[in-house]
Amino acid sequence: MIAYPSIDPILVTLGPFGPVGPFMVRWYGLMYVIGFGVGWWLGRRRASQQGSSWTATDVDDVIFFAALGVIVGGRVGWVLFYGFTEFMRDPVMLFRIWEGGMSFHGGLLGALASVAIFARRRQRSVADVFDFLAPLPGPGLLAGRVGNFINGELWGKPTDLPWGFTVDPAVLHPAQAAEAHHLCERFRVDPCVLHVHASQLYEGLLEGLVLFVILWVFTAKPRPRLAPSGLFLLFYGLFRFAVEFVRVPDENRGYLLLDWVTMGQILSTPMILGGIVLLAIAYSRRQPSGNLQIQTS
Question: Tens digits of per-residue pLDDT, 190-228?
C-alpha cells in the first residue's frame, strides 16, 4: 500500500485584504489554469502545422469560448447531476467553484454549446471545430483529477491491492482528513484508516493521458470529418464507465440501477453510443475535414 501524503489544498494565501479577507490560490483551481494553458499551447502547435486552416488568433478565441463553457457547464452540471440537494439548502454554493464540485459531462455540454457559438461566429463547420479540439482536453482532464487527489475527494472503493492508498486522517491536513472521516462513516470503518483505490488517478491516466495520446496520434494525419469527435466520445465514455466500477458513487446518488450502475455510467453511455454513431457516419461519408486548407494547383 502507498501512504497518501498530507497536502494543504491551499497552495498560497495572500492578504487579508480588508473586508474581502485573504486571497487563496488552491491547487484545484491551479489545475484548471494548467489544463487550459496546455490545451491552448497544443492548439497553437497544431494550428502552426503546414496546411492547417487555423490561425493562432483562432486558437486563442476558441480556447476562451471553451474555457467559459467548461466552467459554467461543469458547475451547473454538477449541481444538477450530483449536488442538487446541497444547492437547495445553500443556493450560493453554485458560485463557490474553488471548493470543488465540477461535472465533466456538464462541462462537456457547456463547451459544446460555447464552441458551437464560436463556430457560427467564424462561419466554420461546428464538426470541424469539435474535431480540432478533440485532442486538447486530455492534459486538463489529467490535471483536474490530480486536483481531486490533492483535495482527498472522489476516492475509490476499499482494496488490498499493492497500488492502493492508505488514507489515515490522523496524519493528514484537516481538509483531507474531513473527507476521509466522511468516507469512514459511509463504510463504517472504525478506527478510521482507509485502504482504497485512487480512482482519481485512474481517471486522470485513462481519461487524460491515454486518451490524449490516442487522439493526438490519430489526428496527426488527415481524418474524415467527425472521426476525431467520435473517437473522443467513444474512448472517454469507455474509460469513465470502467473506472466507475471502483469509484465510490456520490452519497446523495448512490447506485441508481441494479445495485451497481452509477450516475457516471448513465451519463457515459450516450457518449459511447454517440461516438460509435459519429465514427460510422465519418467513415461512411468520408467528408474531408475543413481543418485543412484545400490545395489548388
Answer: 999 999 999 999 999 999 999 999 999 999 999 999 999
Helices (H), the chain: 27-47, 56-81, 84-89, 104-121, 126-133, 138-151, 174-187, 199-203, 211-218, 227-243, 263-285
* Assigned domain for 296 exists: no
Q: Which three cell numbers stand for residue 46?
A: 497544431
Specify the pairing of strand 23-26 against strand 10-14: antiparallel
Per the DSSP assignment, residues forming a β-bridge with 194 are: 167
* Helical packing angle, 104-121 and 263-285, nearest 10°: 40
Query: Do the domain assignments include residue 49?
Result: yes
Q: What are phi and psi of 52, to 5 degrees?
A: -70, 140
CB half-sphere exposure, 44, CA atoms < 13 A: 10
Range of the domain at 215: 2-285
Q: Is residue 111 part of a domain?
A: yes
**238, 272 contact by CB (below 8 A):** yes
